[in-house]
Amino acid sequence: MLQIHIMALIPVTTEWLHSLESLKDVPENQLQWFIDHSAHLELHAGDFLVKPGEVIRGTQVMVSGKVLMYSVQEGIRRELFTVTRGDITGYLPYSRAHYAGLYAEAIEDVQCMMLPRELGREMIQLHFELTQALVHIMTNRVRDFSLAQQQNEKMLALGKLSAGLAHELNNPAAAIVRDAVTLKQHLQLIPERFKDVIGIRMEDSMVEALSQLFYPMVLQRKHQNLSLAQRMQEEDKLTEWLNNHQVANSDDIAETLVEFGICETDLEKLNKLIPARFATNVFNWLHSNLVTEKIVEDIEESSNRIASLVNSVKIFTHMDRDQGKDFTDIHPGIRNTLVLLGFKIRKGKVNVIENFGADVPHANVMAGELNQVWTNLIDNALDAMEVNGKGTLTITTRRRDPDKIEITIADDGPGIPPNIQNSIFEPFFTTKEMGKGTGMGLEVVQKIVRQHHGSIQLNTSPAGTAFIVCLPVT
User: Fold this and answer.
1) What are the residue boundaries of the structural domains of the chain, listed by start?
2) How confident is the model at residue 333 (pLDDT cuts 50, 70, 90)?
3) A single Pfam family, by name (predicted)?
């Protein structure tokens, strides 16, 4: 609760109000009305003028002191601006805001005067110049604050993507490190393997035949989708075969052979070309080659995964292009958004269905701005499905008219209640818990879509929610 200490430390006069740039042209009688009908308040450092969710009580003029305006997002306090002597804040004429979306905390002792909100209608009807001055303040405030919040929303979205990207990059990066260590250890065994191999005495024709048989097995590697039980069964069969042929290190060799899809029949073919006394040496040498091949494959796959993620970021941000409009295929932007939100999608056990129309033309858009639209809509959909512990995200694109394209992002969450559907695009409106959302995401989405001369429509029911974005081709 706001603690109010009735104590006017500095006399507020019409002369003092006239000294403020925003009120200098307001007639004296209107300023006197403003003073006479206002309460004079004092706040001590640490007191709150208002907190998120509380009713905005009236129009406040700062007489002395400082009030810090900040939000809390993702548990992080984000300082936005400071209200100081002469600034006017709180409720302003024609504002639709009834509840505060920010914290307003006194950071030093503050004196302010406050015109109660319920007198706003009387002021609008009887005091034109005062109303006009306050509306001008509101216009500037909305413009400046919207720009700040849009930038803040971009940074918040970037933070979410960065967190997901860190998880996405961590697995392949860790795999590369792990494989590099394994490869180093494996290469240290080569001198021992060399001693074993160098002592093998085989006819040139047999060596050639063995080479022509073995290496195609590696190049034509058979990828088997085996269950754990099937895999263990295959390994046991090969281990038994190797033991029957007096091959040392049979367990490790069998595991690697199954990985490459080499079966008992293949071993029989190889064994016909290997003298019995050299079986251990040859099969261990073949095993060593396969292990090296597998490690290099894993490193290549992990490196490609990292390169793919980096390329997704590059395309998502359009770092290699200017930020003007260009005829662009919208699908790569949507797909790259899904890649960057991949960790959140898997964590939420969400199945993604892409119904992308083959006849959707390129559109003249700012791709970087639209990526922010996809990020907000998809992220909101993923949040909506959290309560179910799983879900299905369906993204559909189609050519609606010869000169329009339509993008639908639908989830099977619980839907948006009817009583708040008309408010979802309003600035600072959010249904998310405190600190998780700013209430600016959908407002930013609507602004970007309108900037492209498009439209956005909401369809929602207890069975799910769909946002339908329509954009002109040119």
Assistant:
1) 14-126, 176-301, 318-472
2) confident
3) cNMP_binding
